[in-house]
Design brief:
Elements: H1 5-26, H2 31-45, H3 51-68, H4 72-90, H5 111-121, H6 135-154, H7 158-174, H8 180-188, H9 197-218
Length: 219
Amino acid sequence: MAENTPLIDIHEGRKHFYYFLARLFVDIPDDNMYEQITSMLPAFNLIADNNMIKEGCIGFEHFNKKRENTSGEDRILFDNDILNDYSILFCHKDKVNLYQSDYTAPYNKSLKDELAYLYKQYGYKLEDNNNTDHISYQLSFMGYMSGLTAININKANNEMTAHLLKVQKEFLNTYMFSYLNTFFTSIAKIPESAMLYYACAAMVLGYVEYDYKFLSKNS
């Protein structure tokens, strides 16, 4: 196992990257999310040779500086502005869509069930199959699979490890790449994304691009 420790750490790291990214769009922003942004930023800076990750890092750094320069009532107002941005971007009538099926033309009725079946095969559980194509749950699935990969490397289960890496690469290629560029563009064109969510979307797109290259070399 000792000789595989660096590889295990890589996939454990991938797990944490994906779970962090999933958190950005699944819940309204709060102090916990802001703390996670601060704690994850150094790790993202290490892989900022990807242009979109670099964009995300710059955005997160700008956000952190702005927020750190507030306190008391100003901090409350600042956080309320971010909540308002979230609402405008994702909750209004002309909102940014968070579900892959909203980007398919014509609408793919079988997509949610298709993903539910895939998730079930690997033990990834969701309470509601209507959420299977939500960007956050797709990112979370990748985090789950990264963790599963680390477990199988630790067990020296080489055949299963190779299979899991192949599934992850195919998942990104088949599902997430089909809409992530449009998702990013949709967010980028809305002014209210400037303070935080442009950076979030850039980070998601950049990390998926970065991880796909990693999987292509290692699967």
